[in-house]
Q: What sequence folds into this?
């Protein structure tokens, strides 16, 4: 059984932290950058439609990924190497470990990119939920176990696997919007903050994971 198929390692945890990957753990929008690099023309057409919420992430991201030749898979992995992660992540993970709180990565992007960027830190996550790719055909094919109505990875469906009194969401963009609406408390930046403002959903602004750790430390103590 893979980590993406496991439920929380702690039965009925009181608290769970759900964290986006692209543009949240990474400093740059790594997945978006990859799509623009390997499918530039289609990205220029579809991305504005997705950000404007006229085209679902489920449809748009699938179209983009499945337009890429499978022979590019190795290049996608190489594209991911060396991408910077936002400061304070290790310290946040240490804090959550001390509190016995699961840290769950929920990404609308590619699992292989999460694993490549995070390296040894990937084992610090309780589970990773992301898009899997099949590169055996002429073009990439998407495998998404937790596909939803509008998302390739329904973050709300993933949250439903974890029974917790407090569900914390950390994110930065449109792929985190539904998760943020569902969460007990939200750390939001960039586009996600703008989307939440439009829905009058309260959130905590953050710049790095030191901010998240400090806020949670004060709240939980």
A:
């Amino acid at each position: 059984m893979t980590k993406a198929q496991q439920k929380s390692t702690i039965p009925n945890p009181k608290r769970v932290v759900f964290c986006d990957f692209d543009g949240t753990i990474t400093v740059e929008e790594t997945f978006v950058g990859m799509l623009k690099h390997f499918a530039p023309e289609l990205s220029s057409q579809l991305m504005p439609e997705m950000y404007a919420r006229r085209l679902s992430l489920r449809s748009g991201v699938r179209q983009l990924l499945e337009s890429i030749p499978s022979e590019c898979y190795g290049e996608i992995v190489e594209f991911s190497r060396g991408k910077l992660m936002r400061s304070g992540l290790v310290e946040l993970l240490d804090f959550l470990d001390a509190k016995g709180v699961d840290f769950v990565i929920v990404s609308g992007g590619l699992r292989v990119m999460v694993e490549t960027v995070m390296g040894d830190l990937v084992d610090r996550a309780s589970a990773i939920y992301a898009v899997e790719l099949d590169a055996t055909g002429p073009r990439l094919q998407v495998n998404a176990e937790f596909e939803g109505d509008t998302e390739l990875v329904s973050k709300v469906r993933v949250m439903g696997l974890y029974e917790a009194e407090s569900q914390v969401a950390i994110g930065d963009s449109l792929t985190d919007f539904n998760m943020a609406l569902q969460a007990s408390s939200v750390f939001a930046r960039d586009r996600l903050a703008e989307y939440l403002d439009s829905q009058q959903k309260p959130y905590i602004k953050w710049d790095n994971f030191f901010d998240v750790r400090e806020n949670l430390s004060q709240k939980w103590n």
Remarks:
- The CA atoms of residues 9 and 102 lie 8 Å apart.
- Confidence is low (pLDDT under 50) at residues 1-12.
- The chain has one domain: 3-30+82-220.
- The longest strand covers residues 102-110.
